[in-house]
Amino acid sequence: MQYAEIKRILSMISDPVEKLDAVIDFGAHMPDVPGTAQCTDIVGCSSFAQICRDGNRFYGRADSALVRGIVAIIVAMVDGQSPDQIKKMDLGQEFKSLNLNLGTARLGGVDSMIRFLQNL
Questions:
Q1: Residue 4 CB: number of other CB atoms within 10 A?
Q2: Per DSSP, what are the bridge partners of residue 53?
Q3: In the list 34, 36, 76, 114, which could disulfide-bond 91, CB 3.0-4.6 Å?
């Protein structure tokens, strides 16, 4: 799913629990990681999470439904972008604009994912 569509869907939901349900749904529909992708474990997540890259295409995995959804959002933000383009993006502010009600541990994982992507 394209990031613009994810953002549009989340902007139409005001209930915080329904927003998190939508995030979980995004993760459930994330495409499989191709065998040619290089995957990196994200250190700092409260669950197992990986961000995978095949050229400028991004994919992800996680062992928690909520974290899988967060990974789906983050990789959608950068999918198709080069490392130089990603470095110029304010991923933290963009993620914050989604107004997701996440705990401190989950936000630490988001920060770790963003740091990883901005240091490609």
A1: 9
A2: 38, 58
A3: 114
